[in-house]
Amino acid sequence: MDKFRMMFQFLQSNQESFMNGICGIMALASAQMYSAFEFSCPCMPEYNYTYGIGLLIIPSIWFFLLGFVLNNNVSVLAEEWKRPTGKRIKDPTILRYMFCSITQRSLIAPAVWVSVTLMDGKSFLCAFSINLDIDKFGNYSLMMGMSEMEKMKLLARIPCKDLFEHHEIRVAASRYIKCISQACGWMFLLMMTFAAFLIRAIRPCFTQAAFLKTKYWSHYIDIERKMFDETCKEHAKSFAKVCIHQYFENISGEMRSFHHNRSSMDDTDKEEEDKRSDEEKLLGIRAQEDMNKVLWNWHTCKPALALRKDKMDGATNGFVKGHTPVVEKREWAVYYSKV
């Protein structure tokens, strides 16, 4: 359990690396799911196109939404977007930066799914087999005397081995459509790679100061939320501990007077120290109404990002006016050589 706890703390402290790992796992999972998926084209003119294109698009949308669900920054983005302004102004550039960062990570798994699907070619064959011109494959007499509906039904059976009788035509048509599908897959990968290259190449051309400011405050919002949650947990734990101690003390005020030896006194001192530490963690908030007011004010009116300098008013370079640091004087000895 200690190893798992240490790993969990490491992942929490390195959230960016953790999210990159999650995106990589999702990408591998998408490829593995497609390899384990049993493709079954309906081989009917009314459903071939819907099934083939749906298999290409719907899992991609699911992976994209799953990337948003697994990203913890989505809740941070939503809270920052919907919170009242209060004493802290909302910066749209920070929201755009957080949204773009989440979107870029969420697009990895859908891109892998689309590229793997296009490289395999089964969904492309199922969707566009009806649009084939079968005369290109050498058998001109196959379609003679057939109505348009019969031709469509015959072409819709090409993806199915058991339903299409002419093996050579089916193989030739399958290779033709899969070739087009693989070409589309390589074009898709080329476009995605080129877009990623442009994003990385163009970003340094803009003002780096604005980018660093946006990145800093986006990290600040995430860290502030985590620390606020941790502080609330510590306060709740101390509040419950002190409340329980006071309850037992009120029930039996003489519970600690049973033993008067030295060990009991040491234990009593330790308990008093723990109690004082718990009292300090309460930070002066000792009533339910006060805590509810603190939580309400944090949501409706967050404090301004301008820290107070307690006991350091008028300080310059870390020293208060009228006071100079005491510098220890040192004696230096200089030796001259005639050589």
From TrEMBL:
Origin: domain of life: Eukaryota
Main location: membrane
Protein name (record): Calcium homeostasis modulator 1
Single GO cellular component term: plasma membrane
Biased segments, Basic and acidic residues type: 263-279
Membrane topology type: Multi-pass membrane protein
Keyword Transport: yes
Localization in the cell: Membrane
Annotated organism of origin: Sander lucioperca (Pike-perch)
Protein family membership: Belongs to the CALHM family.
Segments for region (Disordered): 259-279
Keywords in alphabetical order: Ion channel, Ion transport, Membrane, Transmembrane, Transmembrane helix, Transport
InterPro entries: CALHM
An example Gene Ontology molecular-function term: monoatomic cation channel activity
Transmembrane segments: 21-37, 49-70, 183-202
GO annotation terms (biological process): ATP export
Gene name tied to this protein: calhm1b
